[in-house]
Structure formats: structure tokens, C-alpha cells
Amino acid sequence: MTDIESFIRGLPKTDLHMHIEGSIEPQLMLDLAARNGMKLRWDTAEALRGAYQFDNLQSFLDLYFEGCKVLVTEGDFRDVTRAYLRRAHEDGVVRAELFIGPQSFIERGTPLEALMSGVLGAMQEARREHGLSVGLMISVHRHRTEADAMVMLDQIMPWKDQIIAIGMGGAEIGNPPAKFARFFKAARDRGFRTTVHAGEEGPAAYVREALDLLQVDRIDHGNACLADPDLVRELAMRRIPLTVCPLSNLRLQGVTEMARHPLKTMMAQGLHVTVNSDDPPYFGGYVTENLLACRDALDLSLQEIVRLVRNGLEAAFVTTEEREMLLGQLDDYLARHAGASMS
Ligand code: HPA
Ligand code: ZN
Q1: 237-267 pLDDT tens trace
Q2: Which residues are designated catalytic?
Q3: Which of 130, 170, 219, 233 would give a disulfide with 142, using CB separation of 3.0 to 4.6 Å?
């Protein structure tokens, strides 16, 4: 590992946009399938990893939902969450905010209690064992109906105090934010913070709808906003965080090569961008790999990398006291590495 690599890996970072069910490493997927008496289309981890080649968001979602089938029991949800949190900790992540989308699991017969107990149990263990700060976000599927989302909202109320936000993912084009205006209002009325995937494959108009109609606190991805200068100005002025996922954008053909990724332009326009992993095994990396890929392709300075990391800490759904503590950790790290790192 080069000095720069270990400096970036050691930075106290956030991962604010990742999906638990998209974090199953290939070997764990095979193990979980075997445990649940299922046969996958692939026999080895290498063969499975080789299948991670996508033309667009939908081709990824097809494989992602196929992979979701191996998660059945409380123990499965505990194991996958535990594995991700261990990797994140090793990657220098100090604050992780995790999405899970319960709808497809409930539909296949897993009780919500089992899913929540597995995920929350692993989160508690990571707090204890790694000192990691971690929060859970419940994500609904935009390719389902708003009525389905409302049912989900009712079902999760017993865990309200253990859920930091409500989000939405899935097939974007044809499922604009406007379709879920009443759902997001209901989530806000019940006291939840909100965030939504917008402008990943969809147009700037979807980011505008997310802001005006859903009134979200953060936008997941948001890349397409660049096509609308007024929107960029408003996002920047209101410091709405955008949880950008560069390797995800590359692997889903949102950009043809990393050198064309809009991250640096977004920063230059004053947007509050953060760098995140989305679905790490599918897209080839955790947060550090995302930062390194951007640094290499976009020639980011270390100051810019530190800015991205600081943006993540500032965008986290934590209390003011916790944010100050996390920012203090970053400042201590920078003070310890002064000179060597900031050239
Ligand atoms: N976009 C939409 N839905 C998703 C994603 C994503 O990047 N990852 C997991 N579900
Ligand atoms: Zn995502």
C-alpha cells in the first residue's frame, strides 16, 4: 500500500449510502444459499463475481434481487450486516448509515421482526466491538406502489426509535418522486428524516421533485442535477447533501470512464457531495476504493479528499454532539499526519 492509500484508508470516514442486501460478498452469498438449501446459478465466488457486469440500473437490480433470495432467517441478516460493518471498520469508516428494503423479504415470508432483530443485533455488536457509529434507514421500492410504501411505514413503527431515516430506491426511470409525495409527507409527519435516490439514471427534474415535493433532507446520487443550474444553486445554497457513489455510477454505465465522472465538477459548483459505496461487492469497492478511483481518474488533491470526508461527517444523521465528536476525530487525524499528507 502506498503512503497516500494508507492515509486515505486511515481517514475517519462515513458511508452514508449503502444497501445491506447489496453488500453480500460472493462467498457469503454461496454460504447463505447452501445454508438455506438453495442452488445458485454460480458454483464459485469467482464465477459469481464475474457475473457483476451491468448495462444499466435495471440489469443490476435484476441480479441484486436474485441475490436477495439467500437472505431468509434472522441469522442471515445478522451475518451479512456483521460482515459489512467489519469491512467498513477496517476501511476506516467511523459512521455508517445502512439502507435495508424489507418489502421483498416480507413478501417471501421472512417476518419483519426477524429481519430487524438480525440487522439491529449486528449493529449493536459493531458499536460494542469496533466503536462504530451506525444507523439504520428503511428503504421502500419505487417500482412498487405508494400504497405498498404506506403499509411498510405502518409496519416499521414499533422500531421507530431505532430507525434514523426513510429512503427510497429501485428502478428510477418511470417512477418519479412525485409518485410518492404523500408517502414522504407521512414519513415526515411521523418524525422521520428522509432521503431519496434521484438523478442516478433519471433527469434533473426528478431531483427537483425530490427537493420540492418530497422535501427530503438528503439526495442519494443526485448527479443529474448538473443539467439544471438553478437547481444546483439551490442545492448548494441549502447545503443539501448528495450521497454520490462513483464506482456504482461507473459500473452501471452512468459514466463511460471514471475520468468523466462529475464529482469534481459537483464540488466546484459548491454542492455538498459525499462519497459512498452503494453496493460494494457488485461495484468493486468500499469507500476507500471509491475515493482512490476518483483521486486517480480526476486528479483530486488530498485537500479535496479531506473535503469529501468532512462533507460526509457533516451530512451524517447524527446529533450535534456526535457530529462534533466525529469532526474532532478527523481533525486529530489530520494533525497527526500534518505535513506528510497535505502536500
Ligand atoms: N439505485 C437504485 N436502487 C438501488 C441502488 C441504486 O443505486 N442500490 C440498491 N438499490
Ligand atoms: Zn443506492
Answers
A1: 999 999 999 999 999 999 999 999 999 999 9
A2: 200
A3: 170
